[in-house]
Amino acid sequence: MSPLPSVEAADGVAVVADVVCLGESMVTFVPSRPGRLADVPSFARGIGGAESNVACGLARAGHSARWISRVGTDGFGEHLVREIAATGVDTAYVQRDPRRPTGIYFRTAGERAVGAESIDGDGAVDGVAASEPLAEVLYYRAGSAAAAMSPALIPRERAWSGRVLHLTGITPALSADCRALMREVTARAPGRPLVSFDLNYRVSLWRREEEEGADGESGPAVLLDLARRCDLVFVGEDEAEAVWGARGPEAIRAALPEPEVLVVKQGGAGATAYARRPGEDADDVTFEPAPRVDVVAPVGAGDAFAAGFLSGTLRGLSVAERLRHGHLMAAAALTVPGDLGTPPSRAHADHLVALDATRWGTLRFGPGWTDLPSPAEKWAETAAVEVPDS
């Protein structure tokens, strides 16, 4: 496949970036030791936001990335913009709001819930113990600066100032204005770039919006409409079942026939991509297994996967190679405590992606693997080692 073509910048718009990521980021507070939020004595500060995570991952992978959002004129907003810019992301279009705060949230370690269940402080779902620990997540983002994003505040020309526009399903859950903005930037019109959309279903956000009944729109219907307007869609297999009742990759593709490329993330098993054949009403279907990973924390892996796949898309790689690059970026995120892992060098990643199916299937990644010598230099001593099947 050929790399994505370059595009011309509109009048008054900054130099075109490889990828523009639009959405809210927040300051995160993570407990200093394991335990319930009610019990831990202190927290470490970090940053988090699906869209900015993707922008940071792409910038660290050597692409030009731009993040568009709004923050308050407070210390948290200053910290967010400074930390994201430090990764090489262009933050020139981030707006400061003197009347609204920057969003923050607190979370414990563990997997996010994706269904409509309630989660108590012991990680139980509706009072029943979960098979894997679920994170406690408390958002303080209602009325945030980013929740005020709208077509009037975020001109479409700025959102379209890249070869790719990356969005997620978090933004439309923030407010009616944000939903209007999402519809504006996904409208098909001359000059529209390739539009990428990661479902990123956040049940608590949609529950709040639906309870408030601002415009009578349901989360599943809004997300389905937006996904169908986009060119490249990422969706977790568990998310699709929770949101639309679609079970398995084929059912998800049947629910989303419009995108040119649909990527169904299947957790530790791998990912399946449906890519429409040019000029045909048929797909090429590609599955790539995920390598084994010694997980430090599960947060940020989906965003890192999207960054890796988008990197491969920008480079014109095959769908199978894009999936493998997604898996490698996810492995980098899974082996660090925070949302952002350091991706492997491009040469290191390309070496791993080029392995045959047998050797790819024996990879295992542990903490620090991206900092060690590349396989070409010293394969036997890297943390990405080949292990025999048990």
TrEMBL record:
The keyword Membrane does not apply. It comes from the Bacteria. Signal peptide: none annotated. GO terms for molecular function: kinase activity. Residues 17-111, 137-339 form the Carbohydrate kinase PfkB domain. Keywords: ATP-binding, Kinase, Nucleotide-binding, Transferase. This is Sugar kinase.
